[in-house]
Design a protein that fits this description.
The structure holds two protein chains of two kinds. By secondary structure, chain A is mainly alpha-helical. Helices cover 77% and strands 1% of the residues of chain A. Chain A has helices at 2-27, 34-59, 67-84, 89-113, 118-137, 151-154, 162-180, 182-192, 194-199, 204-230, 241-251, 263-282, 287-314, and strands at 156-157, 160-161. In chain A, β1 (156-157) and β2 (160-161) form a beta hairpin. Chain A is globular. By secondary structure, chain B is mainly alpha-helical. In chain B, strands 1-2 form a two-stranded antiparallel ribbon. Classes of the chains: A mainly alpha, B mainly alpha. Chain B: This is Autoinducer 2 import system permease protein LsrC. Chain B: The chain crosses the membrane at residues 33-50, 62-82, 89-108, 114-134, 141-164, 176-198, 229-248, 260-277, 308-327. Chain B: It is a multi-pass membrane protein.
Chain lengths: 315, 333
């Protein structure tokens, strides 16, 4: 039954995506062009990386609200390590990513060691990490990165935006891990029934610790790409991105209670949101109208899939 | 090691026989007491460093400037007690403030401009509550969607412009009752009413039952779905009341609310002792937690901590409170 409802939600969503793409391409002839679509891929990479890691986290029944703050902190550290500390940029970026990953690890420790519910733990670190970013930056922004750094966020490799390759790679690897490895199945097991997983000898705590660390890592990598794309670092980068990522994940069919969800669903959800954002703005609808529509789509998609699922289980 | 364990067991066995007043008080209001103690200590320390901290002016800033957060946190605490959550309240307050201010400027009676946000808040949250209770969509999903809808709606309606020329009579948050600032009175009265209601009425107690054990609640005849809708509607009313304070505290109404307002409200409820898992916590705790945050914010300025580090320190303190709470709970069980 689980597998069936999974297929249902994602097929439904893919269908919706196709309809949206068709409708939008009729609205504006600039929408369905290779250039525009690739550019949209560029724009959704940061949320995408975070959403992929978030899929794992939510599949275990957890949540990570601090990713936006980790993104901001990593971005600031990249700039500070490079300009103020004087490290070479590759070293600075690596060190910043390590720091962001560590921030995720701290989330994991708070959640697994102290048994703080993930929502609260990451709510607290959301404030803490953003605060650190603000404190370290003192409201200064760092600009003037070397030209080669922009390859990551503004240039193409083989005709496709560089970061889209990264997102693609991350999506493929994550799908394989989640669907086909023991470790991936552990994620579902923890999400469906944590106590039973523990009694079955699965290392629940280790899995969770690894996931929150991975979530921090994803946010940190997204931060460096973000900096490269917009050519500057600011402490408020990534504010609210956690809600965008969660929206994509939930829209993609991952149950907020855990135990269910796929990477492909998240990616479809992500594409749907980005297509709506872009297509509607090309059709002359302002960004605010689009935000409203995304909210409505989120509620309606879950409502529809709930109804399908219920009728499915009853017959 | 061995002896302490034995002693501890002996003590915990002896405890139920004659629980002292303070022990009972601490068992029931542990988190509230911790937060209150933190506020008292903070006040004492900062006042020693800088006596102007307890000047009437600063106290007004601390209490009145944040009263709207405390009022919103009352409704949030109730929602969380039933095992739900609402991440859209910040956007809702923004929308309600614009509605209220527009009515006041358009020349509608002042009382109507105050009543409208309460009624609209209740209506909006009734829809959210129905989606949660009857369509069975998790509250975090519904309110995430509502957050987008409300935020987008606010910007497209206002276009980012501020509402100015508010009639002086409308600005209730700047007035006084019996020499006390209105927001302070609002905060205290609403907190006490809500606390009493949750503690001593059958309806109030049933919220804990819904959040604590939904199946058992259903078995005892509590209509869970209806209670869920009701709690969201009440939460909407408190959001409306919070809006009145928020909208009238300045001479203008901006088309934005403080960023992450919903998270501030949730954090206040949770730090005040409301279990995020539902089933426990009080609104006295959420109001105290709001005051604690405001005190911390103000204290940092008075001890000359750079404003840029403000959020980091608040984050650290939130984390410390949460960890202390977890350790305390573990020690008790």
């Amino acid at each position: 039954m689980n597998l069936r409802s999974l297929i249902r939600h994602e097929t439904l969503l893919a269908l919706l995506l196709v309809i949206v793409l068709i409708v939008l391409s009729f609205q504006s002839d600039r929408f369905f062009t290779v250039d525009n679509l690739l550019n949209q891929g560029r724009l959704m990479t940061e949320i995408g990386l975070i959403a992929i890691a978030m899929t794992f986290v939510i599949a275990t029944g957890g949540i990570d609200l601090s990713v936006g703050s980790i993104l901001g902190l990593t971005a600031i550290l990249t700039g500070v390590f490079w300009q103020n500390v004087g490290l070479p940029l590759p070293v600075a970026a690596t060190a910043a990513i390590a720091a962001g990953t560590f921030a995720g690890f701290v989330n994991g420790v708070i959640i697994t060691r102290f048994r703080v519910p993930p929502l609260i733990a990451t709510l607290a670190t959301l404030a803490l990490y953003r605060g650190l970013a603000e404190g370290i930056s003192q409201a200064r922004s760092v600009r003037g990165y070397p030209e080669w750094f922009y390859v990551l966020g503004q240039k193409d490799v083989l005709g496709v935006p560089t970061q889209l390759w990264i997102l693609l790679l991350a999506a493929v690897v994550a799908s394989i891990i989640l669907a086909y490895t023991t470790w991936g199945r552990t994620v579902y097991a923890v999400g469906s029934n944590e106590v039973a997983s523990r009694f079955s000898g699965l290392s629940v705590e280790k899995t969770k610790l690894a996931l929150y660390t991975a979530s921090g890592f994803a946010a940190a990598v997204a931060a460096v790409i973000f900096v490269s794309r917009v050519s500057t670092t600011r402490s408020d980068m990534g504010t609210g991105i956690e809600l965008d990522a969660i929206t994509a994940v939930v829209l993609g069919g991952t149950s907020i209670f855990g135990g269910r969800g796929t990477i492909i669903g998240t990616i479809i959800g992500l594409c749907l949101i980005q297509a709506l954002k872009n297509g509607l703005s090309l059709a002359g609808i302002k960004g605010d109208g689009t935000i409203m529509l995304i909210g409505a789509v989120l509620i309606l998609a879950i409502l529809a899939s709930n109804l399908f699922e219920r009728s499915g289980t009853r017959t | 090691m061995m002896t302490t364990t034995v002693e501890a067991t002996a003590r915990s066995r002896a405890a139920p026989q004659r629980p002292g007043f303070f022990k009972r008080l601490f068992a029931e209001y542990g988190q509230e007491i911790v937060v209150l103690a933190a506020i008292v200590v903070l006040f004492a320390v900062v006042t020693m460093v800088n006596p102007r901290f307890i000047s009437a002016n600063n106290l007004t800033t601390i209490f009145s400037g944040n009263a709207y957060i405390a009022v919103a946190a009352i409704g949030m605490a109730m929602v969380i007690v039933t095992g739900n959550i609402d991440v859209s309240v910040g956007a809702l307050i923004g929308v309600l403030a614009t509605i209220s201010g527009s009515l006041a400027v358009a020349g509608y009676p002042i009382w109507f401009a105050w009543l409208a946000p309460v009624l609209v808040g209740m209506a909006v949250n009734a829809i959210i509550g129905i989606l949660v209770a009857y369509a069975r969509i998790p509250s975090i999903v519904v309110t995430l969607g509502a957050l987008s809808i409300l935020r987008g709606g606010l910007i497209s309606v206002t276009g980012g412009t501020w509402i100015t020329d508010l009639p002086p009579d409308y600005l209730i948050a700047q007035k006084q009752i019996l020499g006390l600032p209105v927001p302070l009175v609002f905060m205290v009265v609403l907190t006490l009413l809500a606390a009493f209601w949750m503690r001593y009425t059958a309806f109030g107690r049933s919220l804990y039952a819904v959040g604590g054990n939904a199946e058992a609640a259903l078995a005892t005849g509590i209509p869970i779905a209806r209670r869920t809708v009701a709690v969201f509607v009440i939460h909407g009313a408190f959001a409306g009341l919070a809006t009145i304070l928020f909208a009238t505290q300045l001479q203008v109404i901006q088309s934005t609310v403080p960023p992450n307002l919903e998270l501030t409200v949730i954090t206040a409820a949770v730090i005040g002792g409301v279990s995020i898992l539902g089933g426990s916590g009080t609104v006295i705790g959420s109001t105290l937690a709001t005051i604690l945050f405001a005190t911390i914010g103000s204290a940092l300025i008075f001890v000359n901590v750079s404003a840029y580090w403000l959020r980091a320190v608040i984050g650290l303190l939130i984390l410390a409170t949460v960890l202390a709470d977890m350790l305390r709970r573990r020690g008790r069980s």
